[in-house]
Amino acid sequence: MSAKSTDTAPIWVCACSPRKRSTRCPKNNRREVQGMVKKTLKNISEIRRYFHTNKDPIYFVSATNFNLLGLDEWVKNFKYICYMDCFDGRHPNVLCPSEMPHDEFQSIEDINNYLLQHKEVVDYVKARGGKPKFVFLMFDEKTEKLAKDLGGEVWFPKAKLRTAMDNKIETVRVGNKADVPSVPNTLSEVKDYAHLQEICKKAGLGDDLVLQSAFGDSGHTTFFIKSEADFRKYEHEIVGEGEIKIMKRIDCRGSAIEACATSQGTIVGPLMTELVGFKALTPYRGGWCGNEIFSTAFSPKQRQKARELTFQFGEQLRKEGYRGYFELDFLIDKKNDDIWLGELNPRITGASSMTNHAAFAHADAPLFLFHLLEFSKKPFDLDVDELNARWSDPDMIDSWSQMVIKHTEDSVDIITEAPQSGIYRMTSDGKVVFNRFDYHRRAVETEDEAFFLRISNVGDYRYEGADLGILVTRGRSMTPSFQLTDKSKRWIDGIKSCYKARQLPSAQTFEDPAFKIM
């Protein structure tokens, strides 16, 4: 006899009665046939239902839950395990274990590894049972081992592959294979300024340059060099660091786009503007400090070209062995509208909350749902071209902004008062006041309201570059000429004024941890 199956119980076709089907065979010598075929998901409705009834626990482990905020409402048994309690214990799906002694964190990976070894986390995961799945903003091979020790799986490509793809030098090479061009550049080690001049003369890059090392956060490892004096400032971060990406400097606008490389093809999200280097938000020149999403941010031709390049890059990533969520930064030349590849982030990013809350996400499904689907091993068969065409429709994009607010002064103190997360309102005289608690950005009803997610809390150090929080508003935060609006500046000043701090004793020293947490 043989067996066929549905998505649940097997249907037996008996040799004694070929026409008769039942869930049980009347013969005493029946045997179960292994390898039943799983039902293939054919459309968005079936995918949504699949995650609505998800059985195995899925955990997002990170410093905060900002990057995947709201995903717990799409996926049953989705929980957040966080180091920072942004919601003061009021979010129903966030676990923030009590503080225990640990070495000083040097990276987001250190925070995640600390969390996965915390007794409260271990007990929580074991008590909830099932076959746990873990997703992260950043992780390493130690993280993978700790997840395995908890009986779980990491639903991302291997850390070794992710790190290789995260290398900015490798990004250029992958882009070249995919016919996705980077800003005119050359890749080389740099011995000194004279050597840099020699390299650039040979490559025809001129003297006004932007250098990037292989790894590092935006603004921290990007160096603008026009003279030997500029080079001297950053020499210790350039010489001896291996291959450096040496680019011709262009006058450009930054943009970001997220996508997901799946077995059915690369699914592409909307093109977003980037807020970069605003002194009211970040002390880092060239540092990312937010995004806008709105349908007319770029011309139809630019949007389409960026989507095509992202699809090409995603298809090349599949050939490289990478699958799942990723983000590309594109640089759009103001002179001629040329679109150049900036960098790859092979992971979720600070822009992921914008992508996964856009109008198309509510109409169909958040982009990250397709990442989970890819790693679930659940068969699916989607028309990716049709989905991408639908998501490119301007009607699928509503208008939102987010601003990442950092402490920008060259000072160090300890926070004594901090604003709570929730909905804030701007009064008619421009003051910013707390209105009500919420953890949904959709609770923002007008452009005079904003959702604030607090990062730095009472007792934390406030140092230059420290993340205070993220402010999400309806509408634009920049003018048509891509400067902060007066209203955005009032929002920033208003949130910063909610923080109070006391100075450190003069003998006390503090070192900026200098790593990103979102």
List keywords for this structure.
518 residues, alpha+beta, five-stranded parallel sheet, 14 helices
Explain what the structure shows.
By secondary structure, this protein is an alpha+beta fold. It contains 14 helices and 25 strands. Strands 17-16-13-14-15-18-24-22-20-21 form a ten-stranded antiparallel sheet. Strand 7 (133-136), helix 4 and strand 8 (153-154) form a beta-alpha-beta unit. Helix 2 packs parallel to helix 4 (141-149). The longest helix is centred in the middle third of the chain and has 21 residues, at 300-320. The radius of gyration is 25 Å and the shape is globular. 42% of the residues are buried. The model is unreliable at 1-36 (pLDDT under 50).
